[in-house]
From TrEMBL:
The protein's name: Glutamate carboxypeptidase
Any GO MF annotation of the entry: carboxypeptidase activity
UniProt keyword Repressor present: no
Species annotation: Parasphingopyxis lamellibrachiae
Pfam families (alphabetical): M20_dimer, Peptidase_M20
Length: 436
């Protein structure tokens, strides 16, 4: 992992001033805030257009249509746009916009995504505005975040702070269900993370009890498939030396031990799908199960799917090892196998991430906004920023705000967009002007 430079920089700044910095906005920063406000309706209009274009993860053409809408927005700001093909993993690809500045300046990576969980067959397809509220598929997650990025970069362009800045904007087309293997599906994002000094994630801003919250950590998302087997026979012989416990009792034993033996801080685990009987199988996407059986037959097969979430890679590795141990300890006359899918890695809390968050709160102070608190990582899901957090300091939660994401009433609070865009524009401008 790259060593953080922020702690040293912040300490030097404090020593030089003799007190915590309380600088006011510069003239360029004031210009940025005015630009964000002046262009608010333009920002909402763009948001409406991209929300009304379906871009479910599996809708390749829909995602590419959104990317086509976004291309001129970035090119007008001096970015070079590339659509990176992902046909190898049956996904729409990624939208990368690059702006090369002074080689000595910090390199900033901005991360968002164009896809949503709502496929073309969803009944939820339209942006609907009611004053400062609007509903629509992906209006918060993450088309609202993309709107915040563009609003911030427009403000920087107007104020002249894009000049000299080294910025890559990475908008993935499959954040909700990335193309596997990750070595292909996340190759370009990881390379951008290795290039960057700082990564900023533009998924949703969390608000708790009226307070805006910062995110310096996100938990992983790891899926597993457990298959148990038993000796099929007459139910009257269950638990005998010959028949054993059967596949469903073996499944129940393992799941019960998961529940009693796995709990620890920052870990959650879930069983989301289960089937067993004389026959049991999952569909191609492992989203549906089909089973047959009779009450007088000992079941020879059971299948379960679930997930677990962790705060560090060490915790992920340890939990996987413990799950394998529990699975291997078979009940009489049974067998079991657990397989782990590729998942999202954790974005662990680090001193560098915390220093970035402190810089954000310095921006809040200069904008006259309340100090932000830190969000409990257990309240955040997995995200693309976790793929780069191993390589660079990272800060997430800089996108839009609202409620109901992933549901048929997903709603954005439009009044939060200017606040987030101003924060982002000033933070990016300050960081991008510093030497590496």
């Amino acid at each position: 992992m790259k060593p953080s430079k922020f702690i040293g920089l912040c300490a030097l700044a404090a020593l030089a001033s003799g007190a915590p910095a309380q600088a006011e906005l510069s003239s360029a920063e004031q210009r940025m805030t005015e630009t964000v406000d002046a262009e608010m309706e333009r920002t909402v209009s763009l948001l409406e257009r991209v929300v009304n274009q379906n871009s479910g993860t599996r809708n390749v053409e829909g995602n590419r249509a959104v990317m086509a809408m976004l291309r001129p927005e970035f090119e007008a700001l001096g970015f070079t746009v590339e659509i990176i093909d992902q046909d190898e993993v049956d996904r729409a690809g990624h939208f990368f916009a690059r702006r090369e500045g002074h080689p000595a300046n910090r390199r900033i990576l901005l991360i968002g995504h164009t896809d949503t969980v709502f496929e073309p067959d969803s009944a939820f397809q339209t942006f609907t505005r009611n004053g400062d509220r609007a509903t629509g598929p992906g209006v918060v997650d993450d088309k609202g975040g993309v709107a915040v990025i563009i609003a911030a970069l427009r403000a920087m362009h107007e104020a002249g702070t894009l000049e000299g800045a080294n910025i890559v904007v990475a908008l993935t087309g499959d954040e909700e269900d990335f193309g596997e293997p990750a070595a292909i599906g996340r190759r370009d994002l990881v390379e951008a993370g290795q290039w960057a000094d700082i990564a900023l994630g533009f998924e949703g801003l969390a608000i708790r009890d009226g307070q805006d919250m910062g995110t310096i950590a996100r938990r992983s998302s790891n899926s597993w498939t457990l298959t148990t087997s038993g000796n099929q026979g007459h139910s009257s012989t269950i638990f005998s030396d010959w028949a054993g416990d059967g596949a469903i009792y073996e499944m129940a034993r393992i799941i019960s031990r998961f529940r009693s033996e796995l709990p620890e801080p920052n870990l959650t685990f879930n069983v989301g799908l289960l089937a067993g009987g004389t026959t049991a199988e999952l569909d191609e996407q492992a989203l549906r199960a089909q089973a047959t059986g009779k009450t007088n037959i000992i079941p020879p097969i059971a299948i379960a799917r679930g997930d677990f979430r962790t705060l560090s890679q060490e915790q992920t590795d340890r939990v996987r090892a413990r799950m394998r141990e529990i699975v291997a300890d078979h009940a009489p006359g049974t067998g079991a196998e657990i397989l782990f899918d590729e998942g999202y890695p954790p974005m662990a809390p680090t001193a560098g991430n915390r220093a970035l968050f402190d810089r954000l709160n310095s921006v809040n102070s200069d904008l006259g906004l309340p100090e932000m608190g830190l969000l409990d990582p257990a309240l955040r899901g997995a995200a693309d920023i976790a793929f780069v957090a191993e390589y660079t300091d990272a800060l997430a939660g800089l996108g839009a705000a609202g409620e109901g994401s992933h549901g048929p009433a997903e709603t954005i609070d439009l009044s939060v967009i200017p606040r987030q865009a101003k924060r982002a524009a000033i933070l990016i401008s300050r960081l991008a002007a510093e030497e590496r």
